[in-house]
User: What shape does this take?
Amino acid sequence: MEIFKTDRIYNFMGRRLPFLGLSSILFIASIVILFTKGLNFGIDFAGGTIIQVKYEKQAPISDIRTVLKTKPEYANAIISEFGSKEEVVIRLSGTSSDLSTDISDKIHNVLASTGNFEVRRVDIVGPKVGGELREKGVMALGLAIIIILIYVSFRFEWRFAIASILALIHDITIAMGALSLFSIEVNLDILAAILTLLGYSLNDTIIVFDRIREGIQTSKETLLDTIVNESVSKTLSRTTLTSLTTFFVVVTLFAFGGEIIHGFAFTLLVGIIVGTYSSIFIAASFLVQLKFSITDFRSKEAEKLKRQKEKEKIRAMYEKGTV
Amino acid sequence: MKILNYRLIIFILSIIFGVVFSIPSFMQTNSGKKISLGLDLQGGLHMLLGVQTDEAVTSKIKTIATSIKYFAEDEDLLIEDLSINGDSITFTILDKDEAPKIETMLEKIGGLEVGLDELTFNVSLTDDEIVRTKDLSVAQAVETIRNRLDQFGLAEPTVIRQGETDIVVQLPGIRSQEDEKAARELISKPANLELMAVDEERADQVYTMSDAQAASYGDIILEDVKNPNTLYLVKEIPILNGEQVIDAKVAFDQSNQPIINFTLNSSGARIFGDFTAKSIGKRLAVVLDGKVYSAPSIRERIGGGSGQISGGFTMIEAGNVAIALRSGALPASVKLLEKRSVGPSLGADSIQASMVALILGFVLVVVFMIVYYKTAGIIANIALITNIFIIVSVMAMFGATLTLPGMAGIVLTVGMAVDANVIITERIRELLRQGLSIQKAIEDGYSNAMRAILDANITTLLVAVILYAYGTGPIKGFAITISIGILASMLTAILGTHGIYEALMPKISKDKNIKKWFGVS
Assistant: This one.
């Protein structure tokens, strides 16, 4: 079975401007959503309290609301269904740092009149912890980008590095835009998902870039556009296949993984789609837009080779003792 | 071409390794190392506690003030106005000639900055000593909490220090709200026992006195534990503190109420004996965590260094206080910064949901690979299955904890692990189309694909390392799973499948049916 004929070369670069245009629109729209609507930070980052409660029968959400309304300390509680009709999540913005008087004990008493239930999960994150986590998350993202820049510059060339980072920023911004658009709660596992995307999207891009590098080194072709078209076309099967297998898994995770993993799976879902799109249509365009020069690259490579040969020659002479 | 090549041998060894070491985790046997389930999967309590280290500094200052007082009394030195102002102690001596003695004594304590202005001493901790005291207070808090939880009889509590002032406490398998509550109370109880002298001269003015006035006499006002309206005026500098307690047990008084008997160490016993001898007829307040439990009048010298705390404990309370006293006081109070408690049923649900996703996703990928690549797909699937076994084994060997995001990491690895084989097989197909012989196509396919796979995997690995360095709990687990997954896939998908092809080479060369082998015509 085959999806794409490998010998067919598609003219991606000829149509790169419309795709860059589409990406720009998505990117700008994401930025606008992020700045106007913002991210819905969950308690991991914003601090606060979450209580997950499972009732024996259908959860009496309106009763819970009425009961909590009467207590000033829970008046601002947000109550929502969670995964199934029996389960409810109660969110509070405040936290208590006192170890001996705990919110889960209190909520048990307060809700006693609403029916038989079991407290399944209580998460309390203080503001200090939330702030630290947010800081660390941004740090991790920044550091990851720097290390990728260094590695790709070292293995390829600086323009490849810039292009791959631009593709990364493109993918992650759009994924975050989707998080904001659908008001997905951003928690630690979402951060993990975003960092996974970082790896995944980079993976895809690098496979394509590797082909481009190979094309530059092996073929006689002097037009970058042609080499890029060839390389992207040749990796098309692989890109779609791997995305497809990963997609299968993420979709099952999204459908059957349960409510807790929902946000995580959603982020990956969006990310895989965007990542696949960008490694086919966008990443290499950046390379072309950055005016990567094949002749410069080849002469540099030739220079490198020459230097290495010379070194070997000198070494050989030295070893023979005929300096 | 020989059938047994080094790649295949390594691959077979890794299959054996993977299967053998993952048996304990899959079968949940009691022998061998298993993956331990994270609190989010098995249920339990996770807490991040912040030690209020400033309090440790204050209490150290207090202890030093006590030492100065008793040194002066022992040596018959005349000092006046001994008081604590924030983080420093001031006092005045009456005889300038006695200054050297005091200076020698303070030097012996160490870590102090001593200023002498005319007759007034000003003593405070050096900056280094403050840092050391804070550091020590966290270390001691970890030790104390660990001791208490051990004595409480919980299964496998984990108490680890995190950063400068924080402590992570994990209690797997807490089943009920009551257990959780008891554990929290036990952890948070400072158990700071102090024996303090009641200021008999001014005791009757206590109800009209402000805190500031009390402080001006070197006194503090404390409440009674049972009745907050009953107040006591006691000397701020305690006679003894909890550091001198070496044992505490629950006992019963004449009316069969639970009380706590405590035993002091030798220096504590001596100070206690001397003090009681000198103060017959006066009252001694037994203060626990800033509340007065009783204030009996001293009738005679109490030697032997034991005393009791009475004051309306329930049996459980008395037991917990005794545990807390025995395992030492918390040098500073702890605050709850983060708490995550997961009920056992939720954990079980999470495992089930992610198992369903894992198996379904896995089946989808396996079937797809066979349909698309035929034999090459089967070979890739062998690598994939081995990969999962190896991940489980390695995680078990390192005693890693499997969390929900970690589980997601495994699921994701399944999707991505076939990537290397997809790249390789696509390359082989490409070369076959160019008309190369199968044997040559396989060899070149592997070498052509290698650079791309390495570059792609190394960058992902770098990201995982950063995740590990900067992440906390669940993210760390996720990073570990992904890293192990990548390394294992290099072993299985690159080396392992290559070995299989080499072994099958005679057959492949004879057969020449590339449709059957690689799914292309």
Q: What stands out?
A: Chain B touches chain A through 80 residues (CB under 8 Å). The first strand of chain B starts at residue 36 and ends at 37. The two ends of chain B are 26 Å apart (CA to CA).
